[in-house]
Amino acid sequence: MLDRPVRIGVIGCGAQGQNHCRVIRELGETEAVVAAFCDLSEERLAKAGQLWPHARAAKDFRKMLEPGDLDLVIVATMPNTHASMCLAAIEAGANVLCEKPFMMNLEEAVQVLGAAAKAGKQVQVGTNMRYMSTSRYLRDLVVSGQVGDPVFCKAWGCHHSPPVWGPHYELAKSGGGVLASTLIHGLDLAIWVGGAPNPVSVSASSRRLFPGKRGSVVSPEITARFDAEDLLTALVRFDNGATYVLEGNWCDEVKDWHRFELVTTRGTLINNTPFSVKMDEEGKVVDRTPELQGREDWNDGWQESIRFQDADVIGRLRQGKAWELQDHRQLLNMQKVVDGCYESARLGREIAV
């Protein structure tokens, strides 16, 4: 238990790092302070410094961690740096909130979680969509048993064009394209709402349609480095008997969407566009979607979910409580699904995970 503000270090001051810096500022300095931040870019360091002028700034994350005075380190960089940064933060005595995708592969995930367990430190991945009001409502419905058992799910993560604001298209830095950087958001949420079962097997297929599609809207410099998949489909089987069908697409002509539809033995739950709960009641389809309009306790914006996540993580550190939204099994399971999809697509067959 802490009788002072949580001291936080932020590694990576790009878009998501800046989001964390703003949210922590909004929570108030009696709760937490950004005591240090790190980035290779002078411009991004300057932006972070405007929010936290008294924090120490560094280009080398090891120098940022060196004093060993941080309670929490937020890692908001590309996945190829996550393992080394998380391990260094844990060694420096800090708990870790790491943005997803968690690691480049299962071996790294096992290493980091093992180090955290040995040091008595906590690790959570930035699955802030779990904190959305609709997400928690659907999760509670499934846990309560009111909608029966999950049996089938369709999950999407689609964009009109590749997200070239970061090198998600470059495998050496991202570890994967549309699955690792886009589809993973909705997939994590769908698995969590569905009771967080264990994956058993994966059958996946991937393609790169760029630059045949969307090539003209991307610079030649990015085109030369673009080696990730921009289309992935998969079927994942779980130990509770449920089957998930996935689509990740960076060249969708229909719409941008991040959603899932979860079919249960008694109904269908849709998390977005539109949010709905439909039930089978004596053979009739009945709409049981709660009325959201005007309810102050329902706020599902992306920024709000980051605020709820950071407030929860920080609040529990101050109170000496464990982080409860994830456990090591869930983190390893998600890495198994991601790794399994890429391996299955490479081999052209279903594989056990």
SSE blueprint:
Layout: E1 6-11, H1 15-27, E2 32-38, H2 42-51, E3 56-58, H3 61-65, E4 72-75, H4 82-91, E5 95-98, H5 106-119, E6 123-125, H6 133-144, E7 150-158, H7 171-174, H8 178-193, E8 199-207, H9 220-225, E9 231-238, E10 243-249, E11 257-264, E12 267-270, E13 276-281, E14 284-287, H10 302-319, H11 328-347, E15 351-352
Parallel strand pairs: 1-2, 1-4, 2-3, 4-5, 5-6, 7-10
Antiparallel strand pairs: 7-11, 8-9, 8-15, 9-10, 11-12, 12-13, 13-14
Major β-sheet strand ordering: 14-13-12-11-7-10-9-8-15
Structural class: alpha/beta
Strand runs, count:
15
How would you sum up the global shape?
Answer: globular
Q: In terms of per-residue confidence, which ranges show pLDDT below 50 for 5 or more consecutive residues? A: none
- Arithmetic mean of pLDDT: 95
CATH architecture assignment of the largest domain: 2-Layer Sandwich
Task: Using the coordinates above, name the CATH class of the largest domain.
Answer: Alpha Beta
Separation of the first and last Cα atoms: 39 Å
Oligomer: single chain
* Count of separate DSSP helical elements: 11
Strand and helix order: EHEHEHEHEHEHEHHEHEEEEEEHHE
* Helix percent band: 25-40%
* CATH superfamily descriptor of the largest domain: Dihydrodipicolinate Reductase, domain 2
Question: How big is the Rg?
Answer: 20 Å
Number of domains: 2
CATH topological fold name of the largest domain: Dihydrodipicolinate Reductase, domain 2
Strand content: 15-25%
Major sheet description: 9 strands, mixed
